[in-house]
Write a structure and sequence with these properties.
The chain is 85% helix and 0% strand. By secondary structure, the protein is mostly helical.
């Protein structure tokens, strides 16, 4: 019966396909961290985690254009127009990434000193990785918009597998943190080669009269600019909620302690990355042409999947934190394992917040971004007040996530009441009109 229900439900089928692929990617991604934790000393491993956290912030705009791409492919009926908008988005995003690369080069010495790195080369590598990520992100979004979740998953698997092999090889040669970043860049190129070929077969093609060097045409993407800005702010707030603790630990603690905390935070993040595919599938199922009831039903199904999947992992982390940290990161990181339960439940709540953010942004409810901002501000204030030790950081993350959940809950209740009133008014009008 379960298999039959999955086969009959496109929603469950797409979630299952993307989830299987994402679990495979997750396993590979998290194999990457335990591997590096054994190849690098805690201080160097902490540097890698800080770089990954900064990279998450730098790639927010890539998540934006990826979400906008999915939105365009899902809601535009004219395929030629959709391709034109997507390619223009890619051109703007590429030039923006080049601008961020230049900014990174200028700020690299400051970042090196502020975060206590030995070299500024890892930050330069981050900028290069960002540029490579642009076409990869957009083509992945195009594939998801076409409901080609298997192809999108395979691209991610290729990238993750290549990252493990290449980063590990470069670290072993003595390149350390720089080698880890170079491995990420090479892996992205491998994934891009695959997904570019696949989306070409799906119908995505560069307009004949345009290339990357043609004059930019902002009027093509003007209709999506407001939506893009809202997605940017919303995605940034979620990314900061998920990763601000690692950056705070690096700033407030010595390198060794920050490295230990980064390992625990890495384990907790499994929950977020395990549930992200659910929100990405939800994005393709929400349409402005559907009724509020239809969209809300999809959201509730996705919420049940998110809480179910993330809750299982959070429960395991709460029951056996020492064993989980030992298995995933090694015995050298178990001193701070007591912080894992709180961090795990904090990341489960952030996962729910991410799902809600995706849902409301898909419906162009831009006010939800202020909820994400407020949640981050509360968490940041808690971190600034309480950061004496690792446990204090974990406590701040947990209570910050609780306040964030309350804010999202209040917003959801308010929005649902407005939608119910709108539906009631529409029904009343239709009855009076004899429709």
């Amino acid at each position: 019966p379960i298999l039959q229900s999955i086969q009959q439900s496109a929603f469950l089928k797409h979630n299952l396909v993307f989830l299987i692929g994402s679990v495979g990617v997750g396993v590979l991604n998290y194999a990457y961290y335990p591997l590096l934790s054994r190849l690098l000393p805690p201080a160097a491993f902490g540097e890698v985690q800080v770089l990954v956290s900064i990279f998450l912030q730098l790639t927010i705009f890539l998540n934006v254009v990826s979400m906008v791409t999915v939105h365009v492919v899902t809601n535009y009926h004219d395929a030629t127009k959709a391709n034109r908008v997507v390619f223009e988005l890619e051109r703007w995003a590429t030039w923006a990434a080049c601008g961020l690369l230049i900014l990174t080069l200028l700020c690299a010495p400051l970042l090196r000193d502020l975060l206590h790195f030995d070299s500024m080369l890892p930050f330069v590598g981050l900028g290069l990785a960002l540029v490579v990520s642009v076409p990869l992100a957009l083509r992945g979004g195009y594939a998801r918009g076409k409901h080609k979740f298997a192809e999108a998953s395979w691209a991610a698997v290729i990238g993750s597998a290549a990252k493990i092999l290449l980063s590990a090889a470069l670290v072993v040669t003595g390149l350390g943190t720089v080698g880890a970043i170079l491995g990420i860049i090479a892996a992205q190129l491998a994934a891009l080669a695959y997904i570019a070929y696949k989306v070409g077969n799906m119908g995505f093609a560069r307009p004949e009269h345009l290339n990357y060097w043609s004059k930019l045409e902002p009027h093509v993407i003007v209709p999506e600019l407001t939506y893009s800005a809202a997605v940017f702010v919303g995605s940034l707030s979620i990314a900061l909620l998920m990763s601000i603790d690692v950056i705070a630990a690096k700033y407030f603690f010595d390198a060794h302690t920050a490295g230990l905390y980064a390992a625990i935070a890495t384990v907790a993040r499994i929950i977020f990355f395990l549930t992200v595919p659910v929100s990405q599938v939800l994005l393709t199922k929400i349409s402005l042409q559907k009724t509020h009831a239809q969209n809300r039903a999809m959201f509730l199904k996705s919420l049940a999947l998110t809480v179910g999947l993330g809750g299982i992992v959070a429960a395991v982390c709460a029951i056996a934190p020492q064993a989980v940290v030992t298995i995933l990161m090694g015995k050298g990181y178990t001193d701070e394992a007591a912080s894992l339960p709180l961090l795990a439940f904090a990341l489960l709540i952030v996962s729910v917040a991410n799902l809600a953010m995706t849902y409301f942004l898909s419906l162009r409810r831009h006010g939800v971004v202020f909820v994400g901002i407020m949640g981050f501000v509360v968490t940041l204030m808690l971190l600034l007040v309480r950061h004496n030790d690792v446990q204090a950081i974990a406590d701040s993350m947990f209570w910050g996530s609780i306040w964030t959940l309350i804010l999202f809950g209040l917003y959801t209740i308010s929005t649902t009441k407005r939608e119910a009133h709108h539906d009631s008014a529409a029904t009343h009008i239709s009855h009076r009109s004899g429709i």
